[in-house]
Amino acid sequence: MSQSHPDQRSAAVKPCDPVWSDVRAQADAIVAEEPALAGFISTTILNQPSLEEAVLFRLSQRLDQADLPGGLIRQTFSRVLESHPELGEMFRADLAAVVDRDPACQRAIEPILYFKGFHALQTYRFAHALWKAGRRDFALYLQSQSSRVFGTDIHPNAQIGRGIMLDHATGLVVGETAVVGDQTSILHSVTLGGSGKESGDRHPKIGCGVMIGAGAKILGNISVGDCVRIAAGSVVLRDVEPRVTVAGVPAKVVGLAGCPEPARAMNQLFGSIGSETETAAEE
């Protein structure tokens, strides 16, 4: 009885991608439940060879317009993905962040198909790679299109880590020299901006695991430490030490962060940190 050579057997086994398998299974379920969406789901998910290709295809769909058709955008994104395979890891980390932290997200397929915060973030990632490659105008074009389509304005030179959730994302502004650490959650109408007309390094540096509430404004070349909670509507104008909660206009320390990972907990209620042991000294 003949046996296959080990190399032949290995070549016949396709790499296992549990995330992509789950997304495809969810796509099949949508087609069965909503036949009217069958063409959209098949084109966007089922006809794509990988999660990475599905993401860039969906982005090119949404960014398509007459002056730069989606097909040309997709070709550019494909070349960027070839030279920056680490983008696939970032897609997956960001996708996992949304599934983990957004109670409105029930399936991994939803951010890929529908969530403009996820779409805006991945568009930024392509624009950032193009900016770093010296393709300034294409990167700025993508920034402009993202602003028009998704309601966000993220400069392509900003540095944003992985495992990021942009919840709703409408009205988000991230300046040119801003830095955002890994595993951070940012709600809508947040500004990471400058404090005047100064040039050079002029935008905030956000640590890892930070939760920034809706409408918060963080202005100037200041540092926000790891695992900080910034209350909705706060205006942060000075450095913030790690693992505290700040609130107000201007923002002040009102207590500890309340948990080891505020960006994952997404707890925005002050009542949960009201114990005397968590009260920080007033400035």
From TrEMBL:
It catalyses: L-serine + acetyl-CoA = O-acetyl-L-serine + CoA. Pfam families: Hexapep, SATase_N. The keyword Acyltransferase applies. This is Serine acetyltransferase. GO terms for molecular function: serine O-acetyltransferase activity. It is an enzyme of class 2 (transferase). It comes from Dichotomicrobium thermohalophilum. GO terms for biological process: cysteine biosynthetic process from serine.
